[in-house]
Each structure stands twice: as C-alpha cells, then as structure tokens.
Amino acid sequence: MKLGASTLAGLEYGLEDTLEFIEGLGLEYTELVHQFPFENINAEMLESFNLKYSIHSPFMDVNIAALQDKSRLNSINQIKDSIDLANKIDAETVVVHPGLAPYLANKYFLDKVYEFSNESIRELGEYGKDLGVSTAIENMPTFEGMIYQNLEKLHDTLLSYDMAMTLDIGHANHAGYSPDAMYFSSIKHIHAHDNFGDDDAHLALGEGSIDFKGIINDLKKNNYDGIYIIEVNDFDSIKKSYEYMKENF
Question: Are strands 52-56 and 93-96 parallel, antiparallel or unpaired?
C-alpha cells in the first residue's frame, strides 16, 4: 500500500519540520499543501528529504467556478502554478477543488457555476497532461455552497474529460455515501480521514465511525494502486492514523 500524509497537519509548525516528522515516521509519500503559509515552496529543500510528493493546489482563496471572470482566471492561474511545481519536482498528481457557489450564485446561477467549473476543470486537466501531471478533482463535503458533493456527477464529468478523481473518504461519508458506494473507476488518488458523518472533522483514522476496512477492501478488489494520503489536523493524528493503517491493512 502506498501511504503518505498531508502537510495540512503542520500548518503551524513550518514545512521543513512537518516533512521531517512525516519522514521520521517512515512514511514514503507526502502531499504538499501549496498555499499560505506554504505558498512559496523551495524545490531544492524538498530534495533533502527521501519522500515522494503530490500537491494539493490552493483552495482557501480560489474558486475555479467563480462567475466573475477575473476571479476565476486568477484562480486557474494559481492552480497552474501548482501544476508547474509538480512538473518541477516530479510529482505525479495535483489535487484540485472544483469550486464554490456563494449564496447568490447558488440561488440564481447554479447551472452557470457548474458550467464554469467544468470549463476550468477541463482547462486544468489539459494543462496538466501537457506537463505529465494528473489533475485530480476532489469530491466535496456537504456544506452549503460546495459543488460536486455528488460522486456520480463528478465521476461522469471526469470520464468525459479523461481525468482523475481524488476520492476524499471523509467528505464522501459526510455526504452520506456507504462504504460499498464509494468506488469509481476514475479514482486515482485518495484522502483518508475520519468523522461521524455529521461534520468534516478530519479525525485520526479509527476515531470516527467510517468503515475503512470495507472501503479499502473494495478499492483493493477493484485494483486501486494509487496513494492513500492521511489528511488530518495535527502530528499526533498522523501518527495514530499510520498505526491504524499498519495494524489493519
């Protein structure tokens, strides 16, 4: 099993300290959160670690489904910067959020939001393919304004563009998907964290109610061979999650 952890857990500690912690646990993979406070990543510094990387593109201040052209195009360009970085450091995958529908957009123009999101997804997918990088779109939790909470809808869109999905198991559980309903052939990358279905809590694996054994066994049965990225809130939760994975798989 290809197992790694996200630098999301180290936002308050600094990137080098976070990478040292992840490598020290014996994990092989790390997902770099490419936004503040890790907006400017030194590629040479990354080479000092014996880690393989994926990248999570910016999501706090970007919206590839924005109705305002300047906002949307700026967001696309920020994500292209992440794809450029992936190309530079030989990271195969860049994770991308599909965008947001703020209140008025959600109320009056939701079809247009999805249209712009799909145009942006296709553009980023083509940009990544030209550089040998997989642009993998992530399913969202069930919060107002978040689009592509529906796995079937996201899968169909990505198939039409010959692109990959990042399955976020915690988000799918929050959206009400059962373990046997989470597999889709477009899944090429995975985020793993736990919750009780009532919030996107990013708990350590085994601390919530998600049936990881059922989900991972189903993925194995369907020959999933991508990376599992532990995406939790702190260093202790990475360690607990890694121990959970070693004990159960």
Answer: parallel
Alpha-carbon gap, residue 29 to 100, rounded angstroms: 29
The helix/strand/coil state of 114 is helix
Q: What is the pLDDT of residue 189?
A: 98
Identify the three-state secondary structure at position 177.
Answer: coil
How many C-beta atoms surround the C-beta of residue 109 within 10 A? 15
Mean pLDDT of 237-248: 98
| Residue written as token pair 């990959």 | 164
d(CA 155, CA 139): 9
pLDDT reported for residue 104: 95
SS3 call for 220:
helix
pTM: 0.97
Look at residues 242, 238, 178, 206 and name the one whose alpha carbon lies nearest to residue 10.
238
Kind plus residue range of the DSSP H or E element containing 239: helix 235-248
Distance CA 133, CA 51 (A): 18
Give the relative orientation of helices 235-248 and 212-221 as an angle to the nearest 10 degrees.
60
Confidence of residue 183 (pLDDT cuts 50, 70, 90): very high
